[in-house]
Amino acid sequence: MSLSDFFFPLNPEKFTPKSGFYTSQLGLKATFYTDAFPELEENSYDIAIIGVQDDRAAVNNNGCALGPDYFRAQFYLLNEGSFTSKIIDLGNIKAGATITDTYVAVKNVVSELMKLNILPILLGGGQDLTYAQYMAYEDLEQKVDLVVVDPKFDLDEDDEEGIATRSDAYLSKIFLHQPNYLFNFSNIGYQTYYVNQDSLKVMSKLYFDVHRLGEFTDDIALTE
Predict the structure, then answer these.
(1) What's the mean per-residue pLDDT of the chain?
(2) CA Rg, the chain, in Å?
(3) Rounded mean pLDDT of 144-154?
(4) I need a labelling partner for 127 at 20 to 30 A (CA). Which of 101, 146, 168, 221 fits?
(5) Strand, helix or coil at 75?
(6) What's residue 122's pLDDT?
(7) Cβ(106)–Cβ(132) below 8 Å
(8) Domains of the chain: which residue ranges?
């Protein structure tokens, strides 16, 4: 199966201003999949932007599947900095018949892009898609560090079958996944009243890094 089979092409009119983009804006710097799927070779691009329009497992976040196109409308207005990164926007991954089908698509796409040394940036969709992205590293047999900015730990009991999960339980799925390719986990910005003490003990026992929101705002240099 070709990578193109996973994607819907983009309609740039959805995120292009009526007056068009200025020459310095990212909207004129990036490459977009609109008609023919681009030929991707090793190092042909630095970054691939991918939308995942699926919110079936996003708890209390209905409508987040529409996020990718809203993001694009703001992102491509930004001006290019002092970098020369080659960006390609591959459009949106087709939602599968089930959430598991979507996860498999995300896993395959991320894995193939990483093999080409192209960094994928996913636009969701729910946080459960993090687990689908994590599974790509199993194919690569590569350890990964995971950093999450979140007011709580998504460690709820996961009673979903197979690889399916939910946005409030995906971390449980990652921590228990075998074989394990998680080298380290860091949370930035948790808030005490959203986190039970048992969860904090789990993080401490696993030697993971967790930082309260107050610590984050008090010392930005340390956070960076």
Answers:
(1) 93
(2) 18
(3) 95
(4) 221
(5) helix
(6) 97
(7) yes
(8) 1-142, 143-224
Give, in order, the Cα–Cα distances in Å from 178 to each of 70, 138, 198, 214.
Answer: 36, 9, 23, 34
Rounded Cα gap, residues 213 and 223, in angstroms: 10
At residue 158 the predicted structure's pLDDT band, cuts being 50, 70 and 90, is: confident
- Token pair, residue 50, equals 């991918």
From the list 124, 127, 121, 134, the residue with the least C-alpha distance to 152 is 127
Nearby residues of 200 by Cβ (< 8 Å), 6 or more positions away: 210
**Half-sphere exposure for 141 (CA within 13 Å, toward CB):** 0
> What pTM, to 2 d.p., does this model score?
0.91
46-53: average pLDDT: 97
**In this structure, how many other beta carbons lie within 10 angstroms of the beta carbon of residue 95?**
18
How many other C-beta atoms are found inside a 10 Å radius of the C-beta of residue 203? 20
- ω into residue 125 within 30 of 0, thus cis? yes
- Give a three-class secondary structure readout of 126-153: CCCHHHHHHHHHHHHCCCEEEEEECCCC
CA distance 91 to 106: 13
Size (the chain), residues: 224
C-alpha distance from residue 21 to each of 26, 79, 85 (Å):
8, 10, 18
Question: Would you say 153 and 191 are in contact if contact means Cβ atoms under 8 Å apart?
Answer: no
Cα–Cα distance for residue pair 5/223, rounded to 1 Å: 40
Fold of 1-142: Arginase; Chain A (3.40.800)
pLDDT digits (tens, 9 = 90+) for 98-119: 999 999 999 999 999 999 999 9
Q: Which two tokens stand for residue 184?
A: 């380290």
Residue 159 has, within 13 A of its CA and on its CB side, a CA count of 0
